[in-house]
TrEMBL record:
InterPro entries: Cu-R_CopD_dom. GO terms for cellular component: membrane. Residues 44-146 form the Copper resistance protein D domain. Signal peptide: none annotated. Keywords: Membrane, Transmembrane, Transmembrane helix. It comes from Litchfieldella anticariensis (strain DSM 16096 / CECT 5854 / CIP 108499 / LMG 22089 / FP35). It comes from the Bacteria. The chain crosses the membrane at residues 50-73, 85-106, 126-151. This is Copper resistance protein D domain-containing protein.
Length: 152
């Protein structure tokens, strides 16, 4: 159980922390300093390096979460409402990530390769909004995970 909790926390920290850094620190600086060709290329390369970590985090979160739920607590009936909420929000986050990865991120990468900066900007704007939603959901999951069992 301790290993599953540790892996679960590490995976969520990598994913949510990465989104927080990208959204709250890197995005405003890049938008203020870089022209579209450089900014879009930067983001395509950042995602190229960050998304494998997100894939790993998703797999670890699913594996450790399901293991704890079914092997330790005997299934969904054995966990509290906060775990149900965490799972639901986590699945939504994963679906949003899958959409980002297979749709706007692919189109952003292709636009950068073609040097089609207007098309790339559209895709980056969509990715920004979706990551913003995922960041809010991720922070909500952190609150639920850390305090959920203390709520009535």
């Amino acid at each position: 159980m301790s290993l599953a909790i540790a892996l679960h926390l590490l995976a969520s920290t990598i994913w949510v922390g990465g989104m927080f850094f990208a959204y709250m620190a890197l995005r405003p600086v890049a938008a203020g300093l870089l022209e579209p060709p450089t900014r879009l290329t930067l983001w395509a390369r950042v995602f190229e390096r960050f998304f494998p970590w997100v894939w790993a985090a998703v797999l670890v979160l699913l594996g450790s979460g399901l293991w704890m739920t079914f092997a330790v607590f005997g299934g969904m009936a054995g966990v509290g409402l906060h775990v149900h909420l965490m799972m639901a929000l986590g699945v939504i986050m994963m679906l949003i990530f899958l959409h980002i990865y297979f749709a706007p991120y692919r189109r952003l990468s292709q636009a950068v390769e073609r040097e089609d900066w207007p098309a790339g900007a559209v895709q980056l704007g969509l990715i920004r909004r979706l990551i913003g939603i995922n960041l809010i959901l991720g922070l909500l999951v952190v609150v639920i995970a850390s305090g959920g069992r203390y709520f009535p």
